[in-house]
From TrEMBL:
Pfam families: DUF2802. This is DUF2802 domain-containing protein.
Length: 36
């Protein structure tokens, strides 16, 4: 997802992509972002 690449936060991912918190966290992990 481009949003993850741009450093979107987990909240932004859940809102804009309709993901659950867990899915958004997984996305950020897969893309190597350490969003904490």
């Amino acid at each position: 997802s481009r949003l993850v690449g741009m450093g979107a936060s987990i909240d932004e991912l859940t809102q804009s992509c309709g993901l659950t918190q867990a899915e958004a966290q997984l996305m950020t992990k897969l893309h190597g972002n350490t969003a904490s």
